[in-house]
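Notes to self after the call with IL:
- keep both proteins in one doc
- input above output, always
- annotate only the second one for now

Protein 1:
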Amino acid sequence: MSGEDDLRAALRRVRTRRGGRDEEPPFEAAVLEYLRRILQAAEGLETFVLARLAMVIERHYDLAELRGLAFRMNIDDENLAGETLMEKCVSLVQFCDRRGRLAELVALVREERPHAF
């Protein structure tokens, strides 16, 4: 369920408590629109943070070191798409993001390259 779906469900619960009216009062519509914009901004920020992490890794690791980083995380570097170092860095970040391992990646990079952050 997306953040917007959660918001709509919460507003439905509020409406139910108010007697089941289906119309969306102007205040509720304004709140929903405001929160929708916050969610969009958060998604943009997340994309920015992931891109920034890939750039940090690319700046502080060469290709052999990147393969070693992936190895230390038990990630087969064959799973990293791309031909250039930057493409492989982006692939590693995306791989870790999809598997909920970003914190582990950041911790390892901080441990190995404390000056990178």
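Protein 2 (the one to annotate):
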Amino acid sequence: MTSTHPHLAAAWAGRAAGWLRARRGGLLLLALLVGAGSGLGAVVFRYLIYFFTWAATGHVEFGSKDTRAARTCPGSAWRSSS
């Protein structure tokens, strides 16, 4: 969708950017948006790690209950004591 008055949109964007940078409330809003974006990014990144671990090993968490490493490497630090 295109605007019929691009100069009005540019003027509004300039005023909004100025308010966000110059006012305490604008900085607070920016901080909240950046924090929420960072938190959401961290959650998405964690699920990407789970997905690729599952795709590579067939398990959601690598090495949580699997002792194949201990069987193939007898001197392994992951060898269970049981």
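Annotation: The two ends are 66 Å apart (CA to CA). The first helix runs from residue 6 to 22.
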